[in-house]
């Protein structure tokens, strides 16, 4: 039995180098595609908030609320016993707007905890951006267009605020100006006896 020998050709100079360059180019392209694919995937709320703590001007409170002063106001800040007149725009992390109002009255103690805490840091005329973590927002429950576990992003302007007691007093004054006591005609307005 005879063995037929197949002659091997010698490797040309530079072929091995080109091979390794090709392998490196393919690896870089694959890594680039993997990175680009990850850019479309939204970061988890905790990963976003962790990264956001290092952003310029962002303050993180003990509760986990993050805020940035866009424009400082003047005077006192509202308390939980107040009603604030605010303009706001609420978005999700991907920029989807879920609510917006240029002028809305809001009881400080009647909104989600993160929004309440943020309002209490503001002064009249101030503009803030709030990042409300899920535990200070709607938590693990969906709320209308807001998916469960969402970080809420609000741009808020505090126009004014009044205490609930002041508002009740204003309401009573308005009722008195609009016609006196309710439930009947003022004295002397009805038919007079003997007519």
TrEMBL record:
Supply the enzyme class, top level: isomerase
The family annotation for this protein states: Belongs to the FKBP-type PPIase family.
Instruction: Cite the entry's keywords alphabetically.
Output: Isomerase, Rotamase
Which Gene Ontology MF annotations are present? peptidyl-prolyl cis-trans isomerase activity
The organism's place on the tree of life at top rank: Bacteria
Which Gene3D superfamilies does this entry report, sorted A to Z? 3.10.50.40
Enzyme Commission number: 5.2.1.8
Sorted alphabetically, the Gene Ontology BP terms of this entry are: protein folding
Upper classification of the source organism reads: Bacteria, Pseudomonadati, Pseudomonadota, Alphaproteobacteria, Sphingomonadales
Q: Name one Pfam family in it.
A: FKBP_N
tRNA-binding in keyword set = no
**Organism the protein comes from:** Sphingobium cupriresistens LL01
InterPro entries the UniProt entry points to? PPIase_dom_sf, PPIase_FKBP_dom, PPIase_FKBP_N
Domain annotation PPIase FKBP-type: ranges: 81-162
Sequence ranges of Low complexity compositional bias: 170-179
Q: Which reaction does it catalyse?
A: [protein]-peptidylproline (omega=180) = [protein]-peptidylproline (omega=0)
Region: Disordered; residue ranges are 170-195
State the protein's name: Peptidyl-prolyl cis-trans isomerase
């Amino acid at each position: 039995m005879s063995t037929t020998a197949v002659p091997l050709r010698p490797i040309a100079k530079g072929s091995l180098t080109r091979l390794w360059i090709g392998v490196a180019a393919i690896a870089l392209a694959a890594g680039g595609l993997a990175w680009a694919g990850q850019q479309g995937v939204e970061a988890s709320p905790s990963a976003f908030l962790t990264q956001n703590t290092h952003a310029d001007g962002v303050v993180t409170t003990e509760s986990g609320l993050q805020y940035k002063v866009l424009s400082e106001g003047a005077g006192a800040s509202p308390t939980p016993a107040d009603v604030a007149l605010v303009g706001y725009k609420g978005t999700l992390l991907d920029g989807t707007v879920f609510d917006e109002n240029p002028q809305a009255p809001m009881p400080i103690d009647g909104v989600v905890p993160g929004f309440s805490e943020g309002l209490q840091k503001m002064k009249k005329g101030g503009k803030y951006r709030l990042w409300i973590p899920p535990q200070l927002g709607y938590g693990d429950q969906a709320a209308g267009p807001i998916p469960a576990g969402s970080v809420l992003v609000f741009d808020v302007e505090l126009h004014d605020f009044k205490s609930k007691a002041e508002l009740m007093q204003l309401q009573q004054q308005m009722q008195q100006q609009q016609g006196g006591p309710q439930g009947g005609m003022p004295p002397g307005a009805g038919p007079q006896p003997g007519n």
